[in-house]
Amino acid sequence: MIIRTLASSYGRVGAQGLFRESLLALCLISLAACGSSESVVPAVEDQPTMPAEGSNVGQIDEPTEGANTADSIETPTSDITTSRVLSPLPNPPLTAAPADDSEPIRALGPLSTVSEFFLVRNPTRILEDTYGTLTDADFDAGPLPAVISTPAHVDPTTNSAPYFDNLTDVEVFAGEELHVRFRPLDADGGIPGLFPAAIPAGARYDDNFDGTRSLIWRPLQPHIGIREFTITATDPVEPFYRTERTIRIKVKPPADPSDIINLPPVVNQIREHTLRVNDPVVVYIKVDDPNGTIPSLEILNQPAGATLVPHYAFPRISILRFVPRVTGAVSLNLLARDADDPTLTSSRVVTFEVLDEADFIRPGARLRELAAARDLLIGYASLLGFYERPDGAVYADIAAEEFNFVSTENSLKWDLLNPLPGQYQWAQADNLVQHAKARRQAVHGHTLIWHRQLPGWIKRSAFADRETHMREFIDRILTRYGKDVPVWDVVNEALEEDGTFRHSIWFEAMGANFIDTAFRQARLSAPEATLLYNDYDISFAGPKADGMVALMQSLKDAGTPVDGVGFQMHLDADFDRFAEVAETFQQVANLDLDIYISELDVSIRAGQNEAQQARVYEQVLSLCLNQPRCKAYQIWGFTDMYSWRREYNPLIFDRRYQPKPAYRALQRRLAEN
Ligand code: G3I
Predict the structure, then answer these.
(1) Which residue has the higher pLDDT, 63 or 417?
(2) I want to staple 336 with a disulfide (CB 3.0 to 4.6 A). Which of 265, 312, 437, 500 is the partner?
(3) Same domain flag for 249 and 314
């Protein structure tokens, strides 16, 4: 059965229908032979914070490297007819297709919280993007010229640009302390402003309180080599009249390495988690050393029956796996010991809360059961590598109990899947698809073409190659997952806040027609999939919503194979523009398009509370239930423990996996007639 036909015409056949068909179409992901392997190591994620929808600040884009603004085609499909046919993809391909050496391999040993199927891992390969590595020749070529940015209204003949007094490239021996003083000057008088780009880890950037600042840094063995440091001076009168200087810092090995101070090792931070008694728990413990050596790890109070194994690919990581058999607190006393001086140690105590199984039982029906009775898909976004987190077991169980639809928050993004030309990392997405299959969830693929989370090699690619890169990527991802993943965000966030096209690397190379091209390639590569355009700030009245409707109209007129619109809906607890959302939904339905609420979360900001949050969740659900074309109600995560906006507690379970008023509001609304 065709998923697309099902999605566009099934009314509210919804969850069972889409889930059943996607399962029928699901295929087993073959497990290749064994070998050494690596997995993406979970990190304490510092998520970028995007203002809430309904606020007036757009998302901050990543700069596009090497981009020259082409004559952009402001209205998509300006030269596209309904009969447009894409040319065949090149053979041989522009970049190497996924090869067998990219195939994931079985993850053996006590490495995760999963028990119902074998995890896979990416094979160990050195995936290092060496672009931008500086050589002695670069350093010897002498300092880079200043880069001056002059606003149109500034006349350089009457207002000279700021400049730096005696700023040159510098050399330093590892272990020595480097002082670089930045003295910005301006011939017209006044003291220019000053701001640096990235400051090296462990360095200081001190204010000398005399109009100058100093970079103070003691580089060590890992810093040996050449790096750049950029600093900008701003005109005292015209702050956007700027002079940027990039200096090179060459860190050299000393004649006698023992001259370098030996600093103590560290045990990396581990968040405190809430666990469920009798669950398998894994803790990825990373030790490190500022001098670049590999410390040893000791657990002074290793839980009974625990295993501790080295990570297959990261020598600084050890994986502790144990099962807490009693409720209460579990503390791990972790000690790192220096590789060169065993007397040099550091320690960290991490404490987990262990609750009883009864503490995770929720009264009433599960959301997925209530939603299925209404033929509605209800979903969450799945944390990358959740099975490698201490609370991975309870995370997975609650997600499976409550949701029949799962979005790939990060595991299907380009920078993770295809970090270098011809190199593919399938394991995280394979594991998520396998896990969804085991828990009877359909998968929402997020996202094929976006301006963020792109690998450097794509951002640096030539304009002339970008359409082929885009189409080859779409074809390869959908060839692998098109049958297992029935719904896809084909193009994500192509519009600016004012409704015009975002000048992403795709727009700059192909104009707005990249959107039509992406959808046509997706349809060719996965004929049965439901193909969506996804964006934020498009659900309530405004220029961006108008831009979205105009875009969808022009795509439909051109015969672009688009099936629906994903409304991200990253909201705040004081959101109240529900009538406008209903109107926008109806405008999209009038275009014969489906509606997916694709990334809902409701941040609680200062002065707001959980009751307001619950009301927004419930009102948005009502909007979906009252709109026949609304197929899915998806939350961007489900526990505040792992939200991209963690600091605003925007989800329906708290960090201890306890349901919040918003959860109960959804239960209540779904149970209503
Ligand atoms: O995986 C690497 C890890 O190996 C590394 O050690 C670590 C270092 O910080 O970074 C990890 O990657 C992080 C990635 O999430 C996976 O965890 C990135 O730094 C981090 O920037 C990325 O954040 C994601 C963000 O999109 C990126 O723009 C958020 O988790 C994700 O929730 C968010 O989701 C977006 C949607 O895709 C599009 N709509 C808006 C939404 C919120 O921004």
Answers:
(1) 417
(2) 265
(3) no
> The whole model's pTM is what?
0.86
Q: Does residue 436 sit in the same domain as residue 552?
A: yes
Task: Report the CATH number at residue 222.
Answer: 2.60.40.10
- Mutation to probe ligand 1, out of 45, 129, 639 (largest number of atoms < 8 A from CB): 45
Distance of CA 478 to the CA centre of its chain: 20
The DSSP code sequence of 478-519 is: HHHHTTT--EEEEEE--B-TTSSBP--HHHHHHGGGHHHHHH
What pLDDT sits at residue 77? Answer: 60
Ligand 1 site residues, Cβ closer than 6 angstroms: 40, 43, 45-48, 50, 384, 409-410, 452-453, 492, 568, 599, 644
Does some domain include residue 77?
A: no
The answer to whether 103 is a known catalytic residue is no
**What was the pLDDT predicted at 5?**
36
Report yes or no on 204 lying in a domain: yes
Higher pLDDT pick, 133 / 9: 133
Strand-strand pairing, 120-123 and 105-106 = antiparallel
Minimal-distance CA residue to ligand 1 atom 22: 47
On whether both 232 and 381 belong to a single domain, the answer is: no
- Of 53, 409, 467, 493, the active-site residue reads 493
Q: How far is the CA of 45 from the centre of ligand 1 (A)?
A: 7
CA dihedral over 377, 378, 382, 388, signed as positive or negative: negative
Q: Identify whether 510 is part of a domain.
A: yes
- Distance of CA 170 from the midpoint of ligand 1 (Å): 35
Query: Is the same domain home to 503 and 573?
Result: yes
Q: Are 258 and 376 in contact (CB under 8 A)?
A: no
Report the nearest-CA residue for atom 43 of ligand 1. 50
Predicted confidence band of residue 78 (pLDDT cuts 50, 70, 90): low
pLDDT digits 0-9 by tens, 169-204: 999 999 999 999 999 999 999 999 999 998 998 899
Average pLDDT over all residues of the chain: 89
For residue 230, what pLDDT is reported?
96
User: Looking at the structure, do residues 153 and 186 belong to the same domain, yes or no?
Assistant: yes
Q: Are 398 and 366 in contact (CB under 8 A)?
A: no
Domain enclosing residue 188, as ranges: 2-31+132-259
- Looking at residue 142, its pLDDT comes to 86
Locate 76 and state its tokens: 């998509």
Q: What DSSP element (H or E) covers 543?
A: helix 543-558
What average pLDDT does this structure show over 373-377?
96
Determine, yes or no, domain membership for 410: yes
